Amino acid sequence: MENKEERPLNFIEKIIEDDLKAGRVPNDTIVTRFPPEPNGYLHIGHIKSICINFGLAEKYNGICHLRLDDTNPEKEDQEYIDSIKSDIHWLGFDWGKHEYYASDYYDQLYQIALKLIKEGKAYVDSLSAEQMKEYRGTLTEPGKDSPDRNRPIEENLDLFERMKNGEFPEGTYTLRAKIDMKSPNINMRDPALYRIKYADHPRTGKKWCIYPMYDFTHPISDAIEGITHSICTLEFEDHRPAYDWATSIDGIDHTPHQYEFARLNINYLLMSKRKLLYLVKNNLVSGWDDPRMPTVSGIRRRGYSPEAMKDFVSRVGVAKVEGVVDYSLMEFCVREDLNKRAKRLMAVLDPVKLIIDNYPEGKIEYFEAENNPEDPEAGTHKVAFTRELYIEREDFMENPVKGYHRLYIGNEVRLKHAYYVTATSVEKDTEGNITAIHATYDPESKGGTTPDGRKVKGTSHWVSASECISAEVRQYDKLFKAENPGAATGNYLDDLNPDSLIIIRDAKIEKEAATAKPGDYLQFIRNGYYMADSRDSSPEHLVFNRTVTLKDSWSKMKQKMGL
């Protein structure tokens, strides 16, 4: 990630530094929080929020809490909680002892609700959800009071107690704040505070059958925890008055402040948990961690590195205005990072046999192959060379077109790390498909140089036919083929990319790949960056996922734009 001292402060950092300078921060300690709802897996958009909140705490020697805002038991699951923790740790952040849950505060929230009722600031409403929407009004028309708005305090207390005791069906009653039905901000028109919900909670079980609403729970949780800077995305800007109302309730000692930043939008991707869940539930992907999914677990399984994603969100920056980031910038950051860390191996994805007729049968020769030319300290490994090899089918052309510099009859190319070879003939099956290419090698060209100093234009990667391993290679691409999925037809499913996964069942890879584990970053020379699959790969059946191709469309785009 770039050195933070080399870039100008973003608007949140300016606010924090002003607050510290003016003495507005209790104990001079910045306290932020990352507060996901455990109703799905985190996605790439959350990485920006994680980096902002934990990054600010690190920069200003403060504290960042992890708080799970678990206010909707029907959609929450321990699986999601575990995945959220794993994702944050993968990014390199830790909350230490500061792990909290909104459900930790249910007793306090209930007492606050009782206090509001007793003060005449909340009432139990019998309007249905449809009626409540009708009474709320519109952006241009004020709402109107519920018939229950002036219900006597004692009656409200009795009904709320009976709601808690489970005496009424779901939807019968709602506890609402008594604020202002004519407010220009719809969120302030007597928002709901509690609803009846008969659902077991992952942490509180059957203790409650009334649950506090998010807009009531979230700000009060911030206040209880002593959050100094509540940082959220722009869609919560209209909710800020409700946030301020909740944190100003009599008896709440700490008043945090909310600041909004532009969320991370990337073309070709969907960041809606609801839509991602639909893909999972309907088996359109293999799960939340499908490498095509924009989830943190998905990109981790695909082979993205945490360093690349931190670099990406740092380049995007922290702004107040929404925008869309180009997918190719993210891939550029991934390539930039993996280029420095990925081990180079030779893998032939569409193999055709190359037989070197003048190389001794049974002989095995070993060449030193550099693990990473960008990192001299990465060392080398040995790669076996034999009479029969595999090369990529596209690296031979029987009738070469102009400008083709790879192998064809009579042409000489360099086999990487090894020798110069010249194609002499081919074998074909009954349908005319080439099954083998015959060639001769120059023994004097060992290591890619010759005594006469001649050069060749083409270089091919290869693997030994007898000293390689077979593996399944999954060629992943974008899950959607449209920049804005669903924009043209109204249905994002219409834009699913049928070629988002192409499976190669029998790729040939040098034996060094057999030791690769999930988390080891690899580059298959000329083919792209890869990683062993964390779910399906095993010593008996190796599976490698393509992380990203070697093509860098972002650099080309920058050149066109003169950047």
Which percent bin holds the helix content?
25-40%
Instruction: Give the biggest beta sheet.
Output: 7 strands, mixed
Q: What structural class do helix, strand and pairing data support? A: alpha/beta
Q: Overall mean pLDDT score?
A: 95
In DSSP terms (H or I, runs of 4 or more residues), the helix count works out at: 13
From the alpha-carbon coordinates, what is the Rg to the nearest angstrom? 31 Å
- Poorly predicted spans: none
Morphology call: elongated
Q: Bin the strand percentage.
A: 15-25%
Side by side, the strands of the main sheet go 10-23-24-25-21-22-11
* End-to-end gap: 21 Å
**Total beta strand runs:** 25
Structure description:
With 563 residues, this protein is an alpha/beta fold. The protein has 13 helices and 25 strands. It has helices at 11-21, 44-59, 78-90, 106-118, 129-136, 153-164, 214-225, 240-247, 273-281, 296-302, 306-316, 327-341, 553-560, and strands spanning 31-34, 63-68, 99-101, 122-125, 174-177, 192-196, 210-212, 229-233, 257-261, 343-345, 347-348, 351-356, 365-370, 380-385, 388-392, 412-415, 420-428, 434-442, 459-460, 463-464, 468-476, 501-510, 522-524, 528-532, 543-548. The strands form six sheets. Strands 10-23-24-25-21-22-11 form a seven-stranded mixed beta sheet. Strands 19-16-17-18-12-15-20 form a seven-stranded mixed beta sheet, with no helix packed on it. α11 crosses α12 (327-341). The mean pLDDT is 95.
